[in-house]
Specification:
about 220 residues; alpha/beta; Rossmann fold; 5 strands; about 40% helix; about 10% strand; globular; disordered N terminus; disordered C terminus; binds adenosine-5'-triphosphate; binds magnesium ion
Length: about 220
């Protein structure tokens, strides 16, 4: 698959572990925030309907990828959806930041580790599949584009072999595998023409608006 010496694999895995959010930050900012999840934005602008639609898709179809260019708000929406669905999955909700992974062969191990499984070097994918096969859970795979083929392959196998596992992925490109429902995230519009919009609220439109779909992810375009 992706040949790598054991020493390099261990070093890469350690780097991944070091880059994952700490348990403290995963717990969120308050005692009521679900474990395993980054804190959601206190004020997510203009995405409530989108988040509701994606939540329904995740429950109904079981495998949704939120797709869009860098900085448009994919992770923000996915985290919001995950918080909204937390109770529906009885708290069985796992968030894996694949953006911190620099070796695609470690995708199964990264997921297994997030689920609390001890990672075996020989066949982490088999161990992962055996574990999730009879479980009901929501698995959030964030930033799949860094390891797209590996993430796509693992997501497809989990979707096919573990019927109660619902997958919510985010990626700058779709995974292009069986079962995947692609939800393309459009840029946010201009702030609504209402009085009383707070400065911070208006400012929060800037970042998601400021990246062009076709240009490089960091290219800024004029607002509205
Ligand atoms: N609806 C929103 N309201 C307010 N702020 C937002 C909203 N969406 C995104 N942001 C802010 O914009 C920034 C980028 O959002 P986010 O990380 O979700 O983008 P992304 O699409 O996941 O990017 P990447 O492709 O790099 O992973 C973050 O600082 C986030 O807080
Ligand atoms: Mg993201």
């Amino acid at each position: 698959m992706w040949p790598m010496s054991p020493a390099a694999a261990i070093a890469s895995w350690r780097r991944f572990g070091a880059q994952q959010p700490s348990f403290r930050s995963l717990r969120g900012s308050s005692e009521t925030d679900p474990p395993n999840l980054p804190t959601r934005l206190s004020r997510m602008v203009g995405r409530d309907e989108t988040a509701e639609a994606i939540s329904a898709q995740v429950l109904d179809r079981g495998f949704v990828t939120v797709v869009g260019p860098g900085g448009i708000g994919k992770t923000t929406v996915a985290v919001s959806v995950a918080h909204a669905l937390f109770a529906k999955f009885g708290g069985a909700l796992y968030f894996v930041d694949l953006g911190a992974l620099d070796d695609p062969s470690l995708v199964p191990s990264a997921i297994a580790s997030t689920l609390g499984l001890s990672v075996k070097a020989d066949s982490p994918i088999q161990a992962l599949l055996s574990f999730v096969r009879d479980q009901r859970m929501l698995l959030v795979l964030d930033s799949c584009e860094h390891v797209i083929e590996a993430a796509a392959s693992v997501a497809e196998r989990i979707f096919k072999e573990a019927s109660q596992v619902h997958i919510l992925a985010t990626s700058r490109e779709s995974l292009r595998v069986e079962g995947e429902q692609v939800h393309r995230l459009p840029p946010l519009g201009c702030p609504p023409d209402v009085t009383g919009l707070k400065a911070a609220e208006a400012m929060s439109f800037l970042r998601p608006c400021s990246y062009s779909w076709n240009a490089s992810p960091r290219a800024e375009i004029p607002l509205c």
